[in-house]
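dumping this here before i forget
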Amino acid sequence: MTTVPPMIRPVVQQRSPFWLLVTSFFQREVRARYKRSLLGWMWSLINPLSTVLIYSIVFGVFLRTAPPTTKNASAELFAVYLFAGLVGWNLFANVVNGSMDWLAGVMDLRKKVFFPTETAILGGTLATLVQTLFEVAVLLAIMLALGNISFTFLLFFPILLGVASFGLGIGLVISVLNARFRDVRYLTGIALSLQFFLVPIVYPIGLLDGPDIDTYGLPARELVAWNPVSQFVQGAHDVVYFLEVPSLGRCLAMIGYAVVSPTIGLWYFRKRSMAISEEL
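structure:
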C-alpha cells in the first residue's frame, strides 16, 4: 500500500497553507529529478546543448539557414539564434508534458488525504523554472563572450516567467483530460512536435516573407507570427539576440497569454478536481 512521502506527510497532515504545499512538492521534484544519474543536473545543460548542436548542423550547415543580422554583427551564429529561442520552448514543452506526470504521481496520496492537487503541478513548474536557469546561465555566458549583451537581457526573466505561466494553464487542462483519456498524452506529443515548427526557432520568421516561399496558399507567416508561443520566443529573440525591447503589441500579447491561460486552466482544474481521483 502506498504511504505518504516523508517530505509531504507533515504538510498534508497539518493542513498547512497552500504555498507551503507547493514548496514541498517543488523540493520533492528537485530531489527526484535525475535521481540515480551519474551526471545529475548536468543533464539540464547536456540535453539542450545537444539539441542545439544537432539542429545547428542540420539547419545551419546542411540547409545553410542564415541567422538574422544583429546590431553589432558580433553574434551572427545560427546556434546562438537557435539557443535563444530554444530555452523558452523547452520550458513550455516541459511544463505541458510534466503536468500529466506530476498529477499522476500524487493520485495515490490524493485518495488518502485531501489537499489541493494543483499544488503538485505548481511545484513541478517551479522545479522546471529552476532547471531552465541553468540554460539561461549558459546563454548569458555565450552572449558575454560574443560581446552581444545589453540591459535587455534582464527582460528575458519575465518572458520566461510568462512562458511558464502560459504552459501551466495548458498543462492544468491537459493533465485532467489525460486522467480520463490516456490518448491525450500521445496526442500532446504530436501537437508539440507540430507546434515546434510553427514557432520561429529553427528558422527566422523573415524567411516566410521571401517571394520564392511556396506555402500552398496558407497564411504561413500569420500562423507563425500570431502563434501564442511565437510571441514569447520572438520576445526572447528581441531581448537576447537583437538587444531590443519587444514592441508594445508583443508585450501586451505576452501578458495576456500569461494571465488568461492559467486563470482558465486553474478554473477548469478545480472544477474537475473532485472527479480526478476516481479517474486515475
